[in-house]
Amino acid sequence: MKSNPVVRFFRGAWRVLDGLRRVVHFGLMLLVLLVVLAAFGSRGVPVPEAFVLRLDPAGQLTEQLAGEPVERAIAEARGDGRTQTLVSDLVDAVEAATGDPRVKAIHLDLDDFAGGSIDKLRRVSGALEQFRAAGKPVVASGTFLSQGPYYLFAQADEAYLTPDGGVFLDGVGVYRAYFAEALEKLSVDWHVFRTGDYKSFGETFTRRDMSEPEKEQIRPIMDGLWAAWRADVASARGIEPARVDRYIEDLLARLKAAGGDSAQAALNAGLVDKLWTRDQVTNRLAELAARDPDTGGYVGLDFRGYLQALDGAAESESGEAVGLIVATGNILPGDQPPGMIGGESLSRVIRSARQDPDVRALVLRVDSGGGSAFASEEIARELELVRQSGKPVIVSMGAVAASGGYMIALPADEIWAHPTTVTGSIGVFAAFPTFDRALGRLGVNVDGISTHRWSGDLRPDKPLSAEGAELIQTFVEGTYDRFLAMVAEARGMDMAAVRRIGGGRVWLGETGQRLGLVDKLGSLEDALDAAAGRAGLGDAYRVRHLEPPMDFGERLALRLFTGLAAHGISLPMDWRGRVVPGPLGELIEALNQQLTLFSDPRGVYMHCLCEPGR
User: Fold this and answer.
1) Exposure string for 37-72, b = 16+ CB within 10 A, e = fewer
2) Dihedral sign, Cα of residue 352, residue 358, residue 363, residue 367
3) DSSP letter at 111?
4) Rounded CA gap, 398 and 428, in Å?
5) Residues near 38 by Cβ (< 8 Å), separated by ≥ 6?
6) CB–CB of 504/487 below 8 Å?
7) Which residues contact 73 (CB under 8 A, 6 or more apart)?
8) How far is CA 527 from CA 231, 326, 407, 533, in A?
9) How much is the average pLDDT of 88-98?
10) Judging by DSSP bridges, how do beta strands 51-55 and 300-302 pair with one another?
11) Contact (CB, 8 A) for 192 and 205
12) What angle do CA 291, 295, 296 make, to 5 degrees?
């Protein structure tokens, strides 16, 4: 039975109007979002005519922030505490402030800082040295300073410790937990296969203590790291290096002599200049710049806001440049978020550098102790293709570039290391746990049949046979031989020489250069200069930071949440991390649903603005 034509007309008209309503609703929602984003972009961060730049790093210094950018921005907008600070952010801010007449001084506020490796700390201290050379003072303040924060504290012209504070230095130590006894009590067998006496990663599962070969290789590394740290701090404070050692060795006696006053003990040792309260430090900073009439404090701007203000005047990303890729964390197969190195995700970024005609040379900054052998070889192959394309490839090593972290450096035209870089560890290991004894204690038995022997072997719920163990060991040794061959070919060494420095042993950068594992010693900036020189870009070259691309939705969300955090607007979340009711909460909830639509890698879409069932 056909419906009435009039009814059909109004039903069709209603569908059209309802569709237009949803289109207009979504359009208005996007318009509101764009207005918010435009407001954030246009307001910017106001920069005073005269101010103190506040460097207040939080957490650990790192080359690359861990986690997805949007997730980090959301966490920051929720007010979650920062646990990492980019070393490049500190360096960029100080370098810009050096030539900025509005910046009268730097305040190092180190109460939330946890420190970092010496190579990263030296990058910051080098920038501070240039700032001081420009005739501008650096003022540091802190409450209770451990060894990491104290390194930067020592670089200041004026170093003030609060009267209720202290300085605790403890040198360098390496301690690990060993699980062999615990695994035995749990009836778990942890089979470890390795090449060389120094490939010690698996020892934590098979031993109750540190092996002598491990102590043998770690001792010179600890001594070298401490000697570098002590020399830098002593030079900055104008004291003898031995004085730093005596402070640590005599800490208890010094503390007793000061009546238990740790701040006074630090002052007596010459580690700080004065014991000042926060208001005294504030008054000193106000003298250097200006006093804020609203708060009574000094006129200051933190480095994050300063960098955001500078972003508006940043140069275009177009044009010839040296590409910089940061590879930080464990090397794993597939796609991995920032803070870890994915075989596929990092290879894609390297491939984009090879295919981009504006990227004239590539620098890979490595800060990794290795990981997956397969993923490491995958990354190394992509770097080799970049070099074969005619573009110079330079590897700059950070705190550590060992094992797989060293393997991915091999295709480079030049390998640069910091003197304190831990590198080498040319070795391979594998681990295979079996739980048959633990299952047996519970009364669980495993049995069955198979067409071939390996179908029922190499199972974690069955004992590892002698042939199975031999199979894994043979595979490990084959992978090791391939690693040795890669090193020999890349470094122009014979296999016997590589074997002598292999076996999983690690070395400091200076020793690595002497052994032929490293070409030159220097900073990341030195490596960038070398890449630009090889590409013929001259002294005034640009650096382009290469990262995995974000889709439309991610870019939109990142800008929104970053803007919220920069302008002090807290994201409306409850204690469980859920968006709370309210106009802003409803807008974010709707945006979260809509932005998931914009994920096509080509930016081409075929969406219907309709609801299911309509």
Assistant:
1) eeebeeeebeeeeebbbbbbbeebbbbbbbebbbeb
2) negative
3) T
4) 22
5) none
6) no
7) 557, 558, 561, 562, 565
8) 24, 13, 18, 10
9) 96
10) parallel
11) yes
12) 45
SS3 1: coil
SS3 500: helix
327: which residues sit within 8 A by CB, 6+ positions away? 64, 341, 346, 364, 365, 366, 367, 368, 379, 405, 408
Q: Which residue from 87, 154, 147, 96 is spatially nearest to 121, judged by alpha carbons?
A: 87
Tokens of 324: 């910089």
Q: Give pTM, 2 decimals.
A: 0.79
At 179-230, the pLDDT tens digits run 999 999 999 999 988 887 788 878 888 899 999 989 999 999 999 999 999 9
CA distance 577 to 560: 18
For residue 303, which of 294, 311, 314 has the smallest C-alpha distance? 311
Residue type present at position 565: A
Name the pLDDT band for 598 (thresholds 50, 70, 90). Answer: very low
Amino acid found at 470: E
Q: Select from 329, 364, 306, 304 the least CA-distant residue to 103.
A: 306
Strand partners, 400: 422
Q: Report whether 408 contacts 398 (CB < 8 A).
A: no
Sign of the torsion angle spanned by Cα atoms 577, 579, 581, 582:
positive
Contact in structure between 426 and 488 (CB atoms under 8 Å): no
Confidence of residue 319 (pLDDT cuts 50, 70, 90): confident
Per residue in 118-150, pLDDT (tens digit) is 999 999 999 999 999 999 999 999 999 999 999
Q: Please provide the DSSP assignment of 409-475 as one string.
A: TTT-SEEEE-TT-EEE----EEEEEE-HHHHHHTT-------SSHHHHSS-TTSPPPHHHHHHHHHH
Tokens 């910017």 correspond to: 44
